[in-house]
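Researcher: Checking consistency across runs. Here is Endonuclease/exonuclease/phosphatase family protein again:
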Amino acid sequence: MRIVAWNCNERFDRNYLYLRDLDFDVAVVTECGPFDPGMDETREVTSVLKLGVDQPGHTKHIGVLARSPWRVEPLPLAADQPWLLPARVTGPADFTVLGVWALGREWVERGIDYAMQTTRVVAEVLPTIDGPVVLAGDLNAPILSSPVDARRHAESVTRLQAHGLVSAFTAARGDADPLTEPTLFHQWKAEQPFHVDHVFIPKEWTSGIGLRVGTYSEWVATKRSDHVPVIVDLSLPGTPQ
Protein backbone atom coordinates (compact mmCIF):
# COMPACT_ATOMS: atom_id res chain seq x y z
CA MET A 1 0.00 0.00 0.00
CA ARG A 2 1.23 3.49 -0.83
CA ILE A 3 0.24 6.37 1.46
CA VAL A 4 0.87 9.95 0.36
CA ALA A 5 0.64 13.09 2.48
CA TRP A 6 0.74 16.38 0.57
CA ASN A 7 -0.29 19.99 1.11
CA CYS A 8 -1.21 20.83 -2.47
CA ASN A 9 -1.65 24.61 -1.91
CA GLU A 10 -5.07 24.66 -3.61
CA ARG A 11 -5.41 24.40 -7.44
CA PHE A 12 -6.67 20.87 -6.84
CA ASP A 13 -8.20 20.44 -10.28
CA ARG A 14 -4.66 20.61 -11.65
CA ASN A 15 -2.73 19.22 -8.72
CA TYR A 16 -4.79 16.04 -8.45
CA LEU A 17 -3.15 14.84 -11.66
CA TYR A 18 0.29 15.13 -10.04
CA LEU A 19 -1.01 13.24 -7.03
CA ARG A 20 -2.41 10.50 -9.26
CA ASP A 21 0.95 10.20 -10.99
CA LEU A 22 2.37 9.11 -7.62
CA ASP A 23 0.17 6.00 -7.89
CA PHE A 24 -1.23 6.46 -4.40
CA ASP A 25 -3.57 4.04 -2.66
CA VAL A 26 -4.52 6.34 0.21
CA ALA A 27 -3.73 10.05 0.34
CA VAL A 28 -4.14 12.76 2.96
CA VAL A 29 -4.26 16.03 1.05
CA THR A 30 -4.37 19.39 2.82
CA GLU A 31 -5.29 22.81 1.45
CA CYS A 32 -7.18 21.01 -1.29
CA GLY A 33 -10.59 21.84 -2.72
CA PRO A 34 -13.60 19.83 -3.81
CA PHE A 35 -13.27 17.89 -7.03
CA ASP A 36 -14.60 19.54 -10.16
CA PRO A 37 -17.58 17.32 -11.06
CA GLY A 38 -16.36 17.38 -14.65
CA MET A 39 -13.03 15.77 -13.82
CA ASP A 40 -13.25 12.24 -15.24
CA GLU A 41 -10.06 11.33 -13.39
CA THR A 42 -11.78 11.60 -10.00
CA ARG A 43 -14.21 8.79 -10.76
CA GLU A 44 -11.47 6.36 -9.75
CA VAL A 45 -11.37 7.56 -6.14
CA THR A 46 -13.51 7.70 -3.06
CA SER A 47 -12.97 10.74 -0.91
CA VAL A 48 -13.94 12.46 2.31
CA LEU A 49 -13.48 16.23 2.44
CA LYS A 50 -13.84 18.81 5.18
CA LEU A 51 -13.55 22.58 5.02
CA GLY A 52 -10.66 23.55 7.26
CA VAL A 53 -11.84 27.09 8.07
CA ASP A 54 -15.62 27.29 8.00
CA GLN A 55 -15.88 30.98 7.21
CA PRO A 56 -16.97 32.90 4.10
CA GLY A 57 -14.29 33.11 1.45
CA HIS A 58 -12.32 30.10 2.62
CA THR A 59 -12.11 27.16 0.23
CA LYS A 60 -9.19 25.12 1.60
CA HIS A 61 -10.15 21.59 2.67
CA ILE A 62 -8.62 18.58 4.35
CA GLY A 63 -9.14 15.48 2.22
CA VAL A 64 -8.65 11.74 2.57
CA LEU A 65 -8.70 9.91 -0.77
CA ALA A 66 -8.51 6.22 -1.66
CA ARG A 67 -8.21 4.28 -4.90
CA SER A 68 -9.47 0.75 -5.57
CA PRO A 69 -9.19 -1.75 -3.94
CA TRP A 70 -9.22 0.72 -1.05
CA ARG A 71 -12.22 2.84 -0.11
CA VAL A 72 -12.66 5.69 2.34
CA GLU A 73 -15.75 6.55 4.38
CA PRO A 74 -16.44 9.46 6.76
CA LEU A 75 -16.33 9.15 10.53
CA PRO A 76 -17.97 11.50 13.05
CA LEU A 77 -16.15 14.82 13.30
CA ALA A 78 -14.79 16.41 16.46
CA ALA A 79 -16.63 19.72 16.36
CA ASP A 80 -14.04 21.47 18.50
CA GLN A 81 -11.08 20.28 16.38
CA PRO A 82 -11.48 21.91 12.95
CA TRP A 83 -7.94 20.86 12.03
CA LEU A 84 -8.87 17.15 12.13
CA LEU A 85 -10.56 14.93 9.54
CA PRO A 86 -11.13 11.33 10.71
CA ALA A 87 -11.97 8.72 8.08
CA ARG A 88 -12.27 4.95 7.79
CA VAL A 89 -10.31 3.12 5.11
CA THR A 90 -11.46 -0.33 4.05
CA GLY A 91 -9.93 -2.80 1.61
CA PRO A 92 -7.26 -5.49 1.87
CA ALA A 93 -6.82 -4.14 5.41
CA ASP A 94 -9.06 -1.82 7.43
CA PHE A 95 -7.78 1.12 9.44
CA THR A 96 -8.59 4.65 10.60
CA VAL A 97 -6.98 7.75 9.16
CA LEU A 98 -6.63 10.91 11.22
CA GLY A 99 -5.96 13.62 8.65
CA VAL A 100 -4.51 16.76 10.21
CA TRP A 101 -4.00 20.25 8.86
CA ALA A 102 -2.78 22.45 11.70
CA LEU A 103 -4.34 25.89 11.37
CA GLY A 104 -3.03 29.35 12.11
CA ARG A 105 -3.91 30.73 15.53
CA GLU A 106 -6.30 33.24 14.03
CA TRP A 107 -8.59 30.41 12.89
CA VAL A 108 -8.84 28.39 16.10
CA GLU A 109 -10.33 29.08 19.50
CA ARG A 110 -8.16 30.41 22.30
CA GLY A 111 -5.22 30.81 19.95
CA ILE A 112 -4.15 27.15 20.16
CA ASP A 113 -0.80 26.87 18.40
CA TYR A 114 0.13 24.40 15.67
CA ALA A 115 1.77 21.76 17.85
CA MET A 116 -0.98 21.90 20.48
CA GLN A 117 -3.54 20.98 17.82
CA THR A 118 -1.79 17.67 17.21
CA THR A 119 -1.40 17.22 20.96
CA ARG A 120 -5.17 17.39 21.32
CA VAL A 121 -5.72 14.84 18.55
CA VAL A 122 -3.34 12.44 20.26
CA ALA A 123 -4.73 13.03 23.75
CA GLU A 124 -8.46 13.27 23.03
CA VAL A 125 -9.20 11.35 19.82
CA LEU A 126 -6.58 8.64 19.36
CA PRO A 127 -7.43 6.78 22.61
CA THR A 128 -11.06 6.39 21.47
CA ILE A 129 -10.19 4.45 18.30
CA ASP A 130 -9.95 0.69 18.05
CA GLY A 131 -7.67 -1.00 15.56
CA PRO A 132 -4.81 0.36 13.41
CA VAL A 133 -4.50 4.12 12.98
CA VAL A 134 -2.56 6.34 10.57
CA LEU A 135 -2.09 9.98 11.55
CA ALA A 136 -0.90 12.08 8.63
CA GLY A 137 -0.93 15.54 7.13
CA ASP A 138 0.50 19.02 7.47
CA LEU A 139 1.18 19.39 11.20
CA ASN A 140 3.01 22.71 10.67
CA ALA A 141 5.48 21.44 13.27
CA PRO A 142 8.11 21.34 14.47
CA ILE A 143 9.01 24.96 13.80
CA LEU A 144 12.49 24.83 15.26
CA SER A 145 12.69 28.59 15.70
CA SER A 146 10.03 28.18 18.41
CA PRO A 147 11.40 26.13 21.33
CA VAL A 148 7.90 25.71 22.79
CA ASP A 149 6.53 24.44 19.48
CA ALA A 150 9.43 22.04 19.00
CA ARG A 151 9.03 20.71 22.54
CA ARG A 152 5.30 20.17 22.13
CA HIS A 153 5.84 18.35 18.85
CA ALA A 154 8.43 16.10 20.48
CA GLU A 155 5.97 15.37 23.28
CA SER A 156 3.30 14.41 20.71
CA VAL A 157 5.75 12.05 19.02
CA THR A 158 6.42 10.40 22.37
CA ARG A 159 2.69 10.05 23.06
CA LEU A 160 2.13 8.58 19.60
CA GLN A 161 4.85 6.03 20.30
CA ALA A 162 3.03 5.10 23.53
CA HIS A 163 0.01 4.31 21.34
CA GLY A 164 2.15 2.18 19.00
CA LEU A 165 2.53 4.77 16.23
CA VAL A 166 5.89 5.79 14.79
CA SER A 167 7.07 8.32 12.24
CA ALA A 168 7.41 6.75 8.81
CA PHE A 169 10.39 9.04 8.19
CA THR A 170 12.17 7.81 11.31
CA ALA A 171 11.28 4.18 10.55
CA ALA A 172 12.82 4.51 7.09
CA ARG A 173 15.73 6.88 7.81
CA GLY A 174 16.68 6.09 11.39
CA ASP A 175 18.41 9.01 13.10
CA ALA A 176 18.73 11.13 9.95
CA ASP A 177 17.89 14.80 10.41
CA PRO A 178 14.45 15.39 8.81
CA LEU A 179 15.67 18.78 7.57
CA THR A 180 17.87 16.92 5.09
CA GLU A 181 14.58 16.18 3.31
CA PRO A 182 12.32 19.21 3.82
CA THR A 183 8.59 19.08 3.08
CA LEU A 184 7.87 22.84 3.15
CA PHE A 185 9.77 25.67 1.53
CA HIS A 186 8.43 28.78 3.24
CA GLN A 187 7.50 31.55 0.81
CA TRP A 188 8.52 29.12 -1.97
CA LYS A 189 12.20 29.71 -1.13
CA ALA A 190 14.75 26.90 -1.22
CA GLU A 191 16.68 28.61 1.59
CA GLN A 192 13.69 28.41 3.98
CA PRO A 193 13.17 24.65 4.45
CA PHE A 194 11.04 22.93 7.11
CA HIS A 195 9.95 19.34 7.69
CA VAL A 196 6.35 19.71 8.86
CA ASP A 197 4.41 17.11 6.84
CA HIS A 198 4.30 13.72 8.53
CA VAL A 199 2.94 10.18 8.32
CA PHE A 200 2.67 8.20 11.55
CA ILE A 201 1.92 4.49 11.16
CA PRO A 202 1.56 1.43 13.41
CA LYS A 203 4.96 0.13 14.45
CA GLU A 204 4.09 -3.35 13.17
CA TRP A 205 3.74 -1.91 9.65
CA THR A 206 7.33 -0.73 9.43
CA SER A 207 9.01 -3.93 8.24
CA GLY A 208 10.30 -3.32 4.73
CA ILE A 209 9.08 0.28 4.69
CA GLY A 210 9.98 2.50 1.75
CA LEU A 211 9.89 6.30 1.88
CA ARG A 212 10.42 9.09 -0.59
CA VAL A 213 10.14 12.84 -0.08
CA GLY A 214 9.54 15.07 -3.07
CA THR A 215 12.19 17.55 -4.19
CA TYR A 216 12.19 21.32 -4.47
CA SER A 217 13.03 21.20 -8.15
CA GLU A 218 10.14 18.92 -9.07
CA TRP A 219 7.38 20.26 -6.84
CA VAL A 220 8.15 23.82 -5.71
CA ALA A 221 10.24 25.34 -8.48
CA THR A 222 7.53 24.18 -10.90
CA LYS A 223 4.90 26.04 -8.80
CA ARG A 224 2.83 22.96 -7.96
CA SER A 225 2.95 23.81 -4.25
CA ASP A 226 5.23 25.21 -1.58
CA HIS A 227 5.06 21.73 -0.01
CA VAL A 228 6.37 18.45 -1.41
CA PRO A 229 4.70 15.06 -0.89
CA VAL A 230 5.75 12.40 1.59
CA ILE A 231 5.36 8.99 -0.07
CA VAL A 232 5.31 5.88 2.10
CA ASP A 233 5.29 2.29 0.78
CA LEU A 234 4.15 -0.44 3.16
CA SER A 235 3.75 -4.20 3.16
CA LEU A 236 0.86 -4.70 5.55
CA PRO A 237 0.79 -7.80 7.72
CA GLY A 238 -1.83 -10.30 6.57
CA THR A 239 -2.45 -8.74 3.14
CA PRO A 240 -1.54 -10.19 -0.28
CA GLN A 241 1.91 -9.05 -1.43
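Researcher: Does this match what you'd expect to see?
Model: One thing to look at in this run: The two ends are 9 Å apart (CA to CA).
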